[in-house]
Amino acid sequence: MTFRPLPPAWRRMALCALLGFMGLAFWAALQPRLAPSGLYGFDKLVHAGAFGLLTLLGILASAGRRAALLAVLAVFALGAAIEAAQSFVPGREASLSDLAGDAVGIAAGIATARLGHRAAERARRARHGIVTQPTAFASLPE
Length: 142
Known about the structure:
Number of strands: 0
Largest sheet: none
Distance between the termini: 27 Å
Number of helices: 4
Strand content: under 5%
Order of helices and strands: HHHH
Radius of gyration: 19 Å
Shape: elongated
């Protein structure tokens, strides 16, 4: 699959959104009074959703495959840094299960980006009249 980056203006907007949300996530994670409710699992959904969004924005802001990989690694590093920093905040604690929730969100963000890329490729091919057959049917006689 070929990586097709967004136009530069869209990448800059995605980068600004990514940096803003990363800062907001780090700030919120270090607030003693913003701890999630006592519903077990709800905070994992929050982690997965937030890190899925951060991953998707990181991929959208990337100009190539290597940059996208670095963005994904940076989002995971942010999750690890948040968990390490939370061990020093009164009322908060570091948790490997939170980091696992972050990883699930990162995987969901990657999957969303891939599905979006495939849909955009299909739309581009349809606009240009490019018809491709699945490889399973390529050898069948017409």
